[in-house]
Amino acid sequence: MKIGSAADLEAVRQAGMQKLRPGKPRIAVGLATCGIAVGGNRVYERLREIIERDGLDIVLTKTGCIGYCKEEPLVNISIPNKPLVILHKVTEADVEEIVKQVSRGKVPADKALCRVPSWDHVTGCTLEYGKGFSKIPLYEKVPFFKAQKKVILRDAGLINPEDIDEYIAVGGYAAALKALTGMDPETIIKEVENSGLRGRGGAGFPTGQKWRITRDAKADKKYILCNADEGDPGAYMNRNEMESDPHMLIEGMIIGAFAMGAAKGFIFIRAEYPLAIKRLKLAIGQAREYGLLGSNIFGTGFSFDIGIATGAGAFVCGESTALVASIEGRTGRPHPRPPRLTDIGGGLFGYPTDLNNVETWCNVPVIMANGSDWYSRIGAEGNTGTKVFSLVGKVDRVGLVEVPLGTTLHTIVSDIGNGGANNKKVKAVQTGGPSGGCIPLRLFETTVDYESLNRVGSIMGSGGIVVMDEDTDMVDIARYFINFATGESCGKCVPCREGLKHALLLLNRIMAKKGTKKDIETLALLSDTIVATSLCGLGQTAPNPVLTTLAYFREEYDALVKP
Amino acid sequence: MTRKEASSTGGAKKQVTVTINGKKYPADEGEILLGVAVREKIAIPHLCYEPSLDPYGACRLCMVEVIKDGKREMTTSCTLRAAEGLEVVTDTPAIVKYRNVLFELYLAEAPKSEVIKEMAARYGVTKTRFLKKLDTTDSLGNKCVLCGLCVRACNEIMGAGAIGFVNRGPYTVVNTPYFEPTKDCFGCGACAKVCPTKAVEFEDRGSERVMTSWSGTKVPLARCDCCGGYYAPKALAISTLAHITPSLREEIAALCPVCRGRRIARDEILAGRGGGAGSHG
Prior knowledge:
The complex is a heterodimer of chains A (563) and B (281). Chain A is built from 22 helices and 18 strands.
């Protein structure tokens, strides 16, 4: 069936709602990679066995991850007219009891994390689940969720990511319908510009402006790309976005393609994300079946399709020019810009090309559905919207955290993350992956936005926040990241290829207590040189972990060297 | 549309004036600034620049500072294109500081390269603080700086693709696929010709040219019918002959340049023309 009109979309929406609220109990197991890693699949299989064995009238399905990784495996239970209940730390041993309770219209209270009486799916649907279970804490009262604002992760962990109908049920593809049938490209780009959305890959370039440059480029063909080559150690926001809600990415790309005049888009995704690749392929197939991808979308005459290009394990392919080289089948080595991707001759196969991060694309349907005014009220001046962070390392509550930009590090690490794991004191955080820097505790009032993080020597990056506690050796942290960057350097330019290697050798010497004060000076000068002279962003930012630890934790270096 | 087409300006080149170190120079619009500097004999060190190839920007030695709206930005002059009013300065304190570190990195990377030693010494760098890379098995004699010119000449100019980069990051080397002799090599020697550090080596041994740097790849040589000497890689001789007119092809086929010269002279004398210069242009 093809969705050609608002009426068609409404029909699918109602069918999807039947799946989300089937009029009987529905159990959904959180099966993103994180849930599977801690046994989610086994819980799912056990549930299936018991429901089949007892011939129970219970719907069993999968869902993505709501972000509270520490508490996984997570299982959602929705019983008609009752709040949705999220169970945590569910094991196979709990399954028998869960099914018993659910078949009686109850939930095992001791396994319940929280209840959700109603959920705002942001793009036009607030799902009212029901009342009851008053002894189970409300979702908003759970400390991990309290300070969060879910805009990107609006559906994650609630809908089945492998079923397009459920995405449509909660308002999905309505934004694409609105944009393609009710707005012209100029209006769409204006809306994205007015929203203040900036690139979520880390550089923070205004998305609307990039779209306009691509639209204005004079060429008979254009491409749009999605950068899903997420590879920062400790960062997995994009993975969850694609695994839990792949259609929001596809919908964002459809709108972008229409606005920029592209007939073909590619998602460049790292091969290390097999589940995300599988779900994206499934989602693209379903969207094609409904005519949401392909020719003449919504009967507008506009045609667009998406292909998937997988990486081959090189971190540097997240750099725009290396990414394009990789899709074209060449070695993933950056080349100097200009020409930029948006320039004629600079993009994919030489055509003007727009490249946006996964999360940037995921913002687009929200902006179209709710308007730029609504969107720009979230976050801070010049840093609008929310951002998903992966809060990992030596923090108590590990997970994916979505907060408005402008939230302080303190709120994220202490209020949401509950400080250090095992009651240890937090010493610093590392933001932005290998390109980022280490920020000490005394600067935790720093707000998380593009400019403030730059001021303290770090970057927003794609959104990894790695927490370090009192036991963490900061020189070792610097060495870890330099080791990572050395291994991922493409080897084209000398400061990155040779400079990082020698920085690593110097750090090894210092760590082995064989270094001198002079080695620290050489390390600092070498780091500055790599920043100033490297060809691409990888080298230009790779020494940041060294430079920030030298600035904030110099005493730890000094303690390791001979005078 | 190819990258090359897009990067060239096409049609009649507009003349612009660029300023280097306060002095004005004429240039074609879009011309590579390093090319202008080379023409005007302004010393900017460089290793990976070759006018017949696209800008590459790997050696990072040709850094200049662009002055625009009172602000200065450091960039490589081999990727910078001439435009009206472009103003750059060379050898600023920041450039000297960083370039000296780069020279130290090169001295450590290619400790056997005399070219690098001389170049670094010209800029006052004679020692390196970094650990020297000495690998006795290196087929490029610890002279390679991975500027990529040989790979690009082989791929982009010769269209052979016999050599390429192997591995990644600090483990990168240039060689044939799987370090095995390759049939893709014509033996043209363009790699050795463009190598700025004279790292690429080959030698002619009897009927073969041995590419000693490239996993011992052997290329058969063409033999002169007249003197019996070997004079050029066979594959190259055949492909070159294919490009010239049939009558000339017959005439020069199978003769080395010396014997061909002799034959021309003899024919000229027999024809009574005295073998004057230019008759066989």
